[in-house]
Amino acid sequence: MTERPVALITGSSRGIGAACARIFAAQGYGVCINFLRDDWAAARVAEEVRAHNVPCATVQADVASESDVLRLFDTVDKEFGALTVLINNAGILLHQMRLKDMDAERINRILSVNVTSCFLCSREAVKRMSTAQGGSGGSIVNVSSVAARLGAPGEYTDYAASKGAIDTFTRGLAQEVAAEGIRVNAVRPGIIDTEIHADGGEPGRVKRLASAIPLGRGGQAEEVARSIFFLASDQSSYTTGAIIDVTGGR
Ligand code: NAP
Predict the structure, then answer these.
(1) Which of 154, 176, 205, 224 has the least CB density, counted as fewest CB within 10 Å?
(2) Domain that holds residue 129
(3) Per-residue pLDDT at 2
(4) Ligand 1 centre distance from Cα of residue 89 (Å)
(5) Number of domains in the chain
(6) Residue 159 is a catalytic residue
């Protein structure tokens, strides 16, 4: 019998991460759900995952903190054994503003949650997956944003730039670990209907911008999760260093 694959999905208590948790569970993966604050939401996603009769754990950890990331991966080792897939999904944006009003604390928080986290989690995943270090290979998918291309002027250039860093990291790491059995890809979602827009101070952002999207609507978290699953799974076995736009044509 082949071993059950295991996916660690950062920021999976809601939104795109939670949609990923459901899809991976439905496909027979064990799922490690990570969250920052909302243990109740994480527990609800865990219930849906367990309904597929797959192993599941929920782990509170701030992925911007190195010690929390080490604890998160220790838990994965103990609860699941080998890690097959890492989805670097956790990400934040802060209240919309122009550059002139941004302070260093805000900019550093965006960079540490959106970028440093991705480096730290990928480092720990590569250590475990690398065939050069006794692992069985694996797959990493980073969640970027179309903002990396568009720049998000007047709203959150800090967030957009952090996602530009994710695109560059995806291309670099993909080449660095290709010979070690690890594929690294990214998705660039457009405007997706999740709670993240409320954090930016505009809960109705998806509705406001829908008519400017070629497909005429905002996307659903499940539509992004399906592309993430494709990139993470063997369905894309010859794809690495790729970035797929999931933007409704934007
Ligand atoms: P969301 O609904 O706001 O969910 C964010 C998730 O990340 C939550 O589970 C949250 O946990 C967790 N999280 C936040 N900070 C964390 C931290 N420091 N450590 C661990 N977990 C943390 O966001 P989303 O819209 O699904 O976005 C997911 C990813 O897609 C992000 O990287 C985002 O930048 C990207 N994206 C989203 C859109 C969009 O339109 N929605 C577009 C492009 C890209 P708690 O609830 O416990 O805080």
Answers:
(1) 154
(2) 6-246
(3) 59
(4) 7
(5) 1
(6) yes
Residue 156 lies in a domain: yes
Q: What is the pTM of this model?
A: 0.98
Query: Does residue 182 contact residue 130 with C-beta atoms inside 8 Å?
Result: yes
Domain CATH number, residue 178: 3.40.50.720
Ligand 1 pocket test: which of 194, 213, 245, 247 has the largest number of ligand atoms within 8 Å of its C-beta? 194
CA distance 137 to 202: 41
For 167, counting Cβ atoms within 10 Å of its Cβ (0-12 exposed, 13-18 middle, 19+ buried), the class is middle
Atom of ligand 1 nearest to the CA of 17: 26
Would you say residue 144 lies in a domain? Answer: yes
Task: Write the CA distances from 232 to 5, 58, 64, 141, integer angstroms.
Answer: 11, 20, 23, 6
3 pLDDT band (50/70/90 cuts)?
Answer: confident
Distance 195 CA to ligand 1 centre (A): 8
Q: Let me know if residue 93 belongs to a domain.
A: yes
Per-residue confidence band for 121, with pLDDT thresholds at 50, 70 and 90: very high
In the set 29, 156, 159, 238, the catalytic residue is 159
